[in-house]
Amino acid sequence: MFEAAELGRRIPKEEYKRRVPTLRAELLDVQQQLIRARLPVIVVFAGVDGAGKGETVNLLNEWMDPRWLITRAYGEPSDEESERPEYWRYWRDLPPSGRVGLFLSSWYSRPVLDRVNRRNGAAGFDHELDRIAAFERTLTDDGATILKFWMHLGRQAQKKRLRKLEADPLTRWRVTKLQWQHWRMYDRFVAAAERLLQRTSVGAAPWTIVEGADEAYRSLTVATTIRDSIRQALAHRHVAGQDGSSQG
After folding, report:
1. How crowded is residue 147: how many other Cβ atoms within 10 Å of its Cβ?
2. pTM of the complete model
3. What is the CA radius of gyration of the chain?
4. Which of 101, 118, 176, 231 is the most buried (most CB within 10 A)?
5. Which of 1-5, 8-12, 111-115, 190-194 has the lowest mean pLDDT?
6. Which 3-state string (H, E, C) describes the chain?
7. What is the pLDDT of residues 36-90, one digit of tens each?
């Protein structure tokens, strides 16, 4: 499943610099259209350590109008969150109409880690994934657009990326013993990820696999997909509105 995301795709710096200004203007434009159309957009980032999830979210906050973005990342539940249903903290943070929510370490994180660390079996993992699919179906039925990006690196590319982060004093803090432990369990993560994508990539909430080795490639791929998906959602809303008005 991930072979196409291990091809070493790169975008030359000159092409990247040429395409970014237009793309940024288009992202700002669709944001304004979203506000007027009052459509919520939920963008989920998951994937292997070092594949650029956090960097991509930070970049989107630079390229888009952050006043209309909601960015959330999750660690261990707080005492308040532990006293409530598991998904309460996600419901609480969902973007209102007209805004875009960017989610890191979201509702996929715990099921994947439980499966990789063998705290859950195959049947239990499938149950968790079906629960997620039902949760997302509730959101899309209510009018939300959901985009999901799996940021991927091959085993050796991930090792190279982690070593590069370790070598830079400004990013060394991001690489811990846990990241290297995850790398040693790479095959388990890939197996869990394949099952996750098979079970939860549906028409209303699809996954896009993004090769994360080249920053320019992954940035343009994610931003372009977001732009095109929002345009599609806006067009669908426009057509639906026309159909409704003609029937009335």
Report:
1. 22
2. 0.92
3. 19
4. 101
5. 1-5
6. CCHHHCCCCCCCHHHHHHHHHHHHHHHHHHHHHHHHHCCCEEEEEEECCCCCHHHHHHHHHHHCCHHHEEEEECCCCCHHHHCCCCCHHHHHHCCCCCCEEEEECCCCHHHHHHHHCCCCCHHHHHHHHHHHHHHHHHHHHCCCEEEEEEEECCHHHHHHHHHHHHHCCCCHHHCCHHHHHHHHCHHHHHHHHHHHHHHHCECCECEEEEECCCHHHHHHHHHHHHHHHHHHHHHHHHHHHHHHHHHC
7. 999 999 999 999 999 999 999 999 999 999 999 999 999 899 999 999 999 999 9
Chain-centroid distance, C-alpha 138: 18
Tokens of 140: 């899309």
